[in-house]
Amino acid sequence: MSHEQKQPKILGIITARGGSKGIPGKSVKKLGDKPLIAYTIDVAKKSTLLTHLIVSTDSEEIAYVCKEYGVDVPFMRPKELAEDTTPHLPVVQHAVDFMEKKESSIYDSVVILQPTSPFRTVDDIDATVQKLIDADADSAVSMCEIEGDAHPMKMKKMEGDKVLPYVIEETTTLRQELPVVYKRNSAVYVIKRDVVMKENRLFLDGKIVGHLVPKERSLDIDVPLDWIEAEYTLGELKKKGYEF
User: Fold this and answer.
1) What is the pTM of this model?
2) How far apart are CA 158 and CA 194, in angstroms?
3) DSSP conformational letter for 76
4) Pick from 124, 96, 182: which is nearest to 88 by CA?
5) CA separation for the pair 220, 139 (Å, rounded)
6) 168 shares its domain with 227
7) Is 168 a residue whose pLDDT tops 70?
8) Distance separating alpha carbons of residues 201 and 39, to the nearest angstrom
């Protein structure tokens, strides 16, 4: 009898709401020679660990582009799950519920991929998933190092005109002496299926493990200035041999 570990069933969900206000039509706007969302589709399709890959969108235009790039759009997201203020949890729960009924199967984990992170690699996806599996964690997230003036020890608050430390008193002005800190870079989120569907939470608590991604590939496009940075970064990464 074989004692090989069963391959886990993992659902990859590209979440792409229409109606972006910061950058209109952001998901289908061309970055370099292809739509922004195509960067996420192309790397996710190369994953060796995702069992299924789908797009959750409320936009016919986004759905059309996604189908052109060969990814499944099995449903149109309900309008009430596509508002500016809609959190990720019900969107993910809706997609998991739909796909489990469609496939008559229960997933082990869910991977959220946002099209606003165009420079993740397939290794970022698979390494983050593998971290969750190896650690038997509730969730795994891609991370990047915080540098320079964004370091939390440099953050201040103001009470009236008085400037006070926000979290902890700054003990040094030398960047090199500050402790190394990290943040989620928004590229890959992996969550156990039961955490999403039974415990009604995502990646904010429980046992969380992280996969480190270089700062140069950690851009999350939100506002027009980010788009300009993305165009520059795309050229620089291609010079270094990255293929997108």
Assistant:
1) 0.90
2) 42
3) B
4) 96
5) 20
6) no
7) no
8) 28
Two structure tokens written together for 222: 């939100």
**pLDDT above 70 as % of the chain:** 94
3-state secondary structure 191-228: EEHHHHHCCCCCCCCCCEEEEECCHHHCCCCCCHHHHH
pLDDT score at 1: 40
Tell which wins on pLDDT, 218 or 154: 218
Bridge partners of 11, per DSSP, are 52, 110
Q: Tell me how far CA of residue 143 lies from CA of 129, 159, 197, in angstroms.
A: 13, 32, 24
Non-local CB neighbours of 109 within 8 Å, separated by 6+ positions: 8, 9, 10, 11, 129, 132, 133, 190, 191, 192, 193
CA 199 to chain centre: 21
Do 157 and 109 have their domain in common?
no
Say if residue 203's pLDDT is above 80: no
Angle ∠(111,50,227) on CA atoms, nearest 5: 55
Note the pLDDT of residue 137: 96
If asked whether residues 71 and 155 sit together in one domain, one would say no
What CA–CA distance (Å, rounded) separates 82 from 17?
Answer: 6
Total structural domains in the chain?
A: 2
Beta bridge partners of 53: 12
Give the DSSP letter of residue 41. H
Note down the domain range covering 173. Answer: 147-180
Q: How confident is the model at residue 204 (pLDDT cuts 50, 70, 90)?
A: confident
Give the span between the Cα atoms of 143 and 23, in whole angstroms.
25
